[in-house]
Amino acid sequence: RVVVSICTVHRPFVFLLAEKRLKLMDGGARKRKSALRSVLVTPEMKHRMKEARAARKELYDTFSWSDGYLLAMLVGFSILGSVYRIKRQREMIIGISLFVLSFCVYLVIKSWDDAKKAERKKLEKEEKEQEEKAEKEEKERLKEEEIQENEEKTPLIVG
């Protein structure tokens, strides 16, 4: 009796393990994962994620390398001016000339960024125009097909 009871206790457990393995192989894990994801990701969260994506894109479009260079240059010269004590007039002239030279480098970088941005906008505009043209042609083609189908369906009455 003891042996029989042990077999009956362990046997269903083995079958349960086998069923779990079959469910995992059958895509049960994916179903559980998607159910868990639907609990964690709400429609409001999706909306917020879209807004965050749009904000990041706007930041990347507005903040360029030249802006970062200008910010670093100003912070660097501010720290340098507060830490370093000028002893001779020559040091002051060198500092001012370095600042002017750094600002000229900023202007060059800014002009390159503006040229790249204008080129990017031009390409985006051309792509958008091509997409609109393709959509318009597709709509016209669908209308023509619909008209042809309607003509085929309606019988001609000759009187």
UniProtKB/TrEMBL annotation:
| Chain segments carrying region Disordered | 120-159
This protein's source sits in the domain of life called Eukaryota
Which UniProt keywords are present, listed alphabetically? Membrane, Transmembrane, Transmembrane helix
Segments traversing the membrane = 68-86, 93-112
Protein name as annotated: Uncharacterized protein
